[in-house]
Structures are given as C-alpha cells and as structure tokens.
Design goal:
Layout lengths: L6 H4 L3 E3 L9 E5 L2 E4 L1 H6 L4 E4 L2 E4 L5 E4 L8 E6 L19 E8 L4 E14 L2 E6 L11 E4 L2 E9 L16 E6 H10 L1
Length: about 190
C-alpha cells in the first residue's frame, strides 16, 4: 500500500472520541489499531469512534497506560479494530531538533478541524519529546497524531495551552506540546 504524504488525505484517519460525558479527545487509525492518549480514555464514559459510518465502542484496549506524569512510562490506549485497514504506519524513528512535523486533530467533538506545523525543539525526556506548534493545540486535541514523511511519529499527550488561551506553566512557551514517541509505541506493542 502506498504511503500517504498529503495531510488532507491523512486526516480521514484522525478521529474524534465521543463519550457520554462529552470528554474531548482524538486518536488515529493505524493499520487495524486505533491509538490515542490514555488520559483521554481514562476520563471518558462509554467512549466510541465513528468509522466508515459505524459506531465502534472503545472497550478492552490491547494496551492501556494512564501514567501521564511519569516520563519513563506511557500515556496511551490502543484498541484492535480488525476491519480498519488504515494505510498509516508508526515510524521507528524519533524526530530530531528542527524537524517540522504535521499535526491534525478535531476539537469541539469533531466540529472544529485543527491543522498545524510542530517544530521539534530538542527537549526530550524519557518516552516523550516536545515541539512548538504554530497554532495552539488545546484540550480536545489530546491523542492526535503528528506526521513526518507520511508516517505517525507520535501522539499528543500534553500541551501548555488552557482553553482560555493562558499557559498551564508560565515558564514554557504557550504553544509547547509533548508527544509520546511512535518508536516507544512500537516497542510497547511488541511486548504486549
């Protein structure tokens, strides 16, 4: 299957998570898996996604960790979606300082599409790396992917921008975002 390079074609595999308590989040369909941030699922009541016109409940993850405050652990949830067959793949590289990644996500329960560039700033800690985005990624974008050369290189696990456009941490840039590395996700999937 040919690798997709165009972000407008990749976005069809980025899905909003819908839940009974209206907790916002996104995820990405990679092969026959749906991948998102663990903290999104932890806060959702009866989460589902819509795929090819069908509602798919997110139950029984094959991998689930909600350790968002430990850089050597994981903030991830992975679900098997046997009939998905997405052409997207996880990259086995970790982006380097200066790499320009493409990000796309849905907010407002799938009503608002957000696309931006994320420039890797060189900050790395444990399983995560940081990037500065050219648009503010707010709550609701958590779990969304970033792409490099047509492959998923990470998922968004934290940002420094609150809903009211203020910094979570005033010592960091407002548009700083933290991503769980796809290389780490691949290693985690191999052991589960």
């Amino acid at each position: 299957m040919e690798k997709i390079q165009d972000i407008t074609k990749m976005r069809q595999y980025v899905l909003s998570i819908i839940s009974d308590n209206y907790n916002e989040g996104c995820g990405v369909m990679v092969g026959n898996m749906f991948i998102t941030a663990g903290h999104v699922i932890h806060k959702c009541v009866n989460p589902i996604i819509r795929w090819n016109g069908k509602k798919i409940p997110l139950i029984n993850p094959i991998v689930f960790h909600n350790d968002e405050n430990n850089s050597d652990s994981y903030d991830i949830a992975v679900y098997s979606i046997p009939k998905a067959n997405s052409p997207l793949v996880l990259s086995d590289i970790v982006p380097e300082k200066g790499d320009v990644l493409k990000s796309c996500s849905w907010r407002m329960l799938g009503e608002e599409y957000v696309e931006c560039n994320a420039v890797v700033n060189g900050l790395k800690e444990g399983n995560y790396y940081a990037a500065d985005t050219d648009k503010q990624l707010k709550p609701g974008s958590s779990g969304s992917p970033v792409f490099l050369n047509g492959e998923v290189v990470g998922i968004l696990c934290a940002g420094n921008c609150n809903d009211d456009n203020t910094s979570c941490n005033t010592e960091w840039p407002l548009n700083l975002c933290v991503f769980l590395s796809s290389k780490v996700i691949l290693e985690l999937l191999e052991t589960n």
